[in-house]
Write a structure and sequence with these properties.
Oligomer: single chain
Distance between the termini: 7 Å
Number of helices: 1
Largest sheet: 12 strands, mixed
CATH architecture: Clam
Number of strands: 12
Strand content: 35-45%
Strand order of the largest sheet: 7-8-9-10-11-1-2-3-4-5-6-12
Helix content: under 10%
Length: 232
């Protein structure tokens, strides 16, 4: 499931809803918004698709904390926990009494635009190219879901011969530069869409939320290698 190319020489002026915003202005304001937030809380809906078929829809509450920590509490259709504590990424399935862990550097989510929410506010780390999509984009899902929103399309930066973790990603922000939607598209027509709502910023979040303490009797399993591309 992250140093700065877009360094803010001046405090950015946010383009108002309906203004002819430039890609650079939207990127700067989005990064500045999340650079200033030390903790975040939101509700989320996650939809995982293969081609035109929706495979899984889940929902719950998510927390983010700088630097580099997040906690996804899945509530429906079944309880599970995905947690990044800064060192490990954990996936806990209460029904199976198992917890799988892998080093953060091997976690897919850590190398995608979702890391923007963990205080690593630099899209250039992931994006080789970023463009602001028109409101009448060809694909309906590439258009803003609400009037006044902005949709950025990010194509991955290529590092040597390494395969990128995603083919492209969409980041939709509202007029206040809060993320309302993130779409991550991978090879093989795989797509994961996250929708966020009820954002709360810079609120007290108990430190214990970002540490995983296995309940008695829960087996700890090391993630297999090579890593399987999948979603938490």
């Amino acid at each position: 499931m992250i140093p700065a190319l877009f360094f803010l020489l001046l405090f950015p002026v946010a383009p108002g809803p309906g203004a002819n915003a430039s890609t650079n202005a939207v990127v700067k304001n989005l990064e500045a918004h999340y650079r200033s937030a030390r903790t975040l809380e939101a509700i989320f809906l996650e939809r995982y698709s293969e081609g035109s078929q929706t495979v899984r829809v889940e929902s719950g509450k998510v927390y983010f904390s700088r630097p580099g920590r997040m906690r996804w509490e899945y509530e429906s259709p079944q309880e599970k926990l995905f947690l990044v504590d800064g060192k490990y990424a954990w996936l806990y399935l209460p029904a199976d009494r198992t917890a799988t862990r892998k080093p953060v550097k091997e976690s897919d989510d850590w190398r995608t635009p979702l890391a923007l929410l963990t205080g690593r506010a630099d899209l250039s780390r992931f994006c080789g190219n970023i463009e602001l999509l028109p409101t009448d984009a060809v694909l309906t899902e590439d258009r803003p879901s609400s009037a006044g929103n902005y949709v950025l399309r990010c194509t991955p930066k290529i590092h040597g011969n390494a395969e990128p973790d995603f083919r492209e990603a969409l980041l939709e922000a509202d007029s206040q530069f809060q993320l309302v939607r993130v779409v991550i598209r991978q090879a093989g027509a795989l797509q994961t869409e996250f929708r966020f709502g009820n954002w709360r910023e810079n609120i007290p979040v108990d430190e214990s939320k970002f540490h995983f303490l296995p309940p008695p009797g829960v087996a700890i399993v090391e993630a297999p290698q090579p890593e399987i591309t999948g979603q938490h």
